[in-house]
Amino acid sequence: xxxxxxxxxxxxxxxxxKTKSVKRKWREIExxxxxxxxxxELSELGLTAEDELxxx
Length: 56
Hints:
mainly alpha, 2 helices
Protein backbone atom coordinates (compact mmCIF):
# COMPACT_ATOMS: atom_id res chain seq x y z
CA UNK A 1 0.00 0.00 0.00
CA UNK A 2 1.45 3.34 -0.94
CA UNK A 3 0.69 6.82 0.36
CA UNK A 4 -1.91 7.61 -2.29
CA UNK A 5 -3.96 4.56 -1.29
CA UNK A 6 -3.79 5.58 2.35
CA UNK A 7 -4.87 9.15 1.58
CA UNK A 8 -7.77 7.97 -0.56
CA UNK A 9 -8.98 5.70 2.26
CA UNK A 10 -8.82 8.57 4.77
CA UNK A 11 -10.63 10.87 2.34
CA UNK A 12 -13.37 8.29 1.78
CA UNK A 13 -13.91 7.84 5.52
CA UNK A 14 -14.16 11.57 6.18
CA UNK A 15 -16.52 11.99 3.23
CA UNK A 16 -18.84 9.27 4.53
CA UNK A 17 -18.97 10.89 7.99
CA LYS A 18 -19.81 14.24 6.39
CA THR A 19 -22.53 12.63 4.28
CA LYS A 20 -24.14 11.04 7.32
CA SER A 21 -24.09 14.38 9.14
CA VAL A 22 -25.68 16.17 6.19
CA LYS A 23 -28.38 13.51 5.85
CA ARG A 24 -29.17 13.77 9.57
CA LYS A 25 -29.46 17.57 9.30
CA TRP A 26 -31.86 17.25 6.37
CA ARG A 27 -33.99 14.75 8.29
CA GLU A 28 -34.17 17.23 11.18
CA ILE A 29 -35.13 20.05 8.81
CA GLU A 30 -37.82 17.91 7.19
CA UNK A 31 -39.23 17.00 10.62
CA UNK A 32 -39.45 20.69 11.52
CA UNK A 33 -41.26 21.43 8.25
CA UNK A 34 -43.67 18.54 8.89
CA UNK A 35 -44.51 19.94 12.34
CA UNK A 36 -45.07 23.41 10.85
CA UNK A 37 -47.38 21.98 8.18
CA UNK A 38 -49.31 20.06 10.82
CA UNK A 39 -49.73 23.20 12.95
CA UNK A 40 -50.92 25.12 9.90
CA GLU A 41 -53.42 22.41 8.97
CA LEU A 42 -54.69 22.25 12.55
CA SER A 43 -55.09 26.02 12.67
CA GLU A 44 -57.02 25.92 9.39
CA LEU A 45 -59.36 23.40 11.02
CA GLY A 46 -59.71 25.67 14.03
CA LEU A 47 -57.73 23.46 16.39
CA THR A 48 -54.95 24.64 18.68
CA ALA A 49 -52.11 22.82 20.40
CA GLU A 50 -54.25 22.51 23.53
CA ASP A 51 -57.02 20.85 21.52
CA GLU A 52 -54.47 18.46 20.07
CA LEU A 53 -53.42 17.39 23.56
CA UNK A 54 -57.01 16.49 24.45
CA UNK A 55 -57.04 13.84 21.75
CA UNK A 56 -54.06 12.03 23.26
